[in-house]
Amino acid sequence: MSDQRGSTEPPIPGTAVERRPAPVVRCRRCHRPLHSPESRWEKLGRHCADAPEPVRVYVIDQDPLPGT
After folding, report:
1. How many structural domains compose the chain?
2. Domain of 47?
3. pLDDT (tens digit per residue) in 2-61
4. Residue 1 pLDDT level (bands cut at 50, 70, 90)
5. Residue 20 to residue 25: CA distance in whole angstroms
């Protein structure tokens, strides 16, 4: 029987997996890197999550309606 902790046997071919660092997840609004698991899931930082959605306002010159 082999000891699990001190095993010197090579891994079965095709099963060795390299550990890669977690990808950098950035906030959708301010593009800061996120670290909290919940923030990473929602892709919103703690400051951006509480902020209201930005509203776009377009100022367009219009002719007055007839009869007004």
Report:
1. 1
2. 24-51
3. 445 656 788 788 877 788 888 999 999 999 999 999 999 999 988 888 878 778 889 999
4. very low
5. 15
Structure tokens at 48: 């951006």
What's the pLDDT score for residue 46? Answer: 86
Closest by CA to 29, choosing from 3, 48, 52, is 48
Residues in the chain: 68
Residue 21: closest CA among 3, 42, 35, 38 = 35
Is 2 a member of any domain?
no
Going by C-alpha positions, the residue among 47, 49, 48, 22 that lies closest to residue 35 is 22
Cβ atoms within 10 Å, residue 67: 4
The answer to whether the beta carbons of residues 32 and 45 sit under 8 Å apart is yes
